[in-house]
């Protein structure tokens, strides 16, 4: 059975973001195919996709390598997100469905509950889910895809400190959903812009060469889960 390239792409991207592959390190088709238990064909296709996304570069005499973005490129990503997240919220206020609202409200309830209890472990994943759903509610596949790529690359380039005021942060999430539910695109845009600006302040650039960088485990296996593909 041929494994879809997008599944291999997701696995490689996740490992790049997690630091399994050092920036600048070579990504050989043979080793990647062995690691993920697939043939070289989906690996080759995945590397082309990852190169288009900016995670991989092709170098003469070296082949595919993990990209080494500059500090300016990393800063540009945060600026792009600060522009696009509010746009997505404004579009969501115009195009959201009841299903989107149901999920967003449920996430806000969970986030506010976890924030009040001081349970920070779940807050990051809930926040990611919230913003992914908000982007999907914009009704724009291109915008949703662009924001998803930005989130992946920002997670790769930045470490994020725990928010100083998680209760206030989730109150902002609630305000965004209220504006989206009312169809108030300008209000949704304004609250999201303020929320994104505050969240951006918690990002700290990862410097691969720093001595105090947390060492990551690079021997973990990340096989492609093909069980669901057989269904």
Sequence-ordered SSE layout with sheet pairings:
Blueprint: H1 5-18, H2 29-36, H3 40-53, E1 56-59, E2 63-66, H4 71-95, H5 98-117, H6 123-136, H7 141-157, E3 158-160, H8 166-182, H9 185-200, E4 203-205
Antiparallel strand pairs: 1-2, 3-4
Helix pairs in contact: 1-3, 1-7, 2-3, 4-6, 4-7, 4-8, 4-9, 5-6, 5-8, 8-9
Key terms:
about 230 residues; mainly alpha; two-stranded antiparallel ribbon; 9 helices; elongated; disordered C terminus; Tscrpt_reg_HTH_GntR; WH_DNA-bd_sf
Description:
- By secondary structure, this protein is mainly alpha-helical.
- 63% of the residues lie in helices and 6% in strands.
- The chain has a two-stranded antiparallel ribbon with strand order 1-2. It has a two-stranded antiparallel ribbon with strand order 3-4.
- α2 packs across α3 (40-53) and α4 (71-95) runs antiparallel to α7.
Question: Could you give a quick summary of the protein structure above?
Answer:
With 231 residues, the chain is mainly alpha-helical. The chain contains 9 helices and 4 strands.
**Main sheet properties:** 2 strands, antiparallel
Report how far apart the termini are.
13 Å
* Category by helix and strand content: mainly alpha
Radius of gyration: 19 Å
Globally, the shape reads: elongated
Number of strands: 4
Mean pLDDT: 87
Q: What is the helix tally?
A: 9
The largest beta-sheet arranges its strands as 1-2
Approximately what portion of the residues adopt beta-strand conformation?
Answer: 5-15%
Looking at the chains present, what oligomeric state does this protein adopt?
A: single chain
The arrangement of helices and strands along the chain is HHHEEHHHHEHHE
What is the helix fraction of residues, given as a range?
A: 55-70%
Return residue spans where pLDDT drops below 50 for at least 5 consecutive residues: 208-231
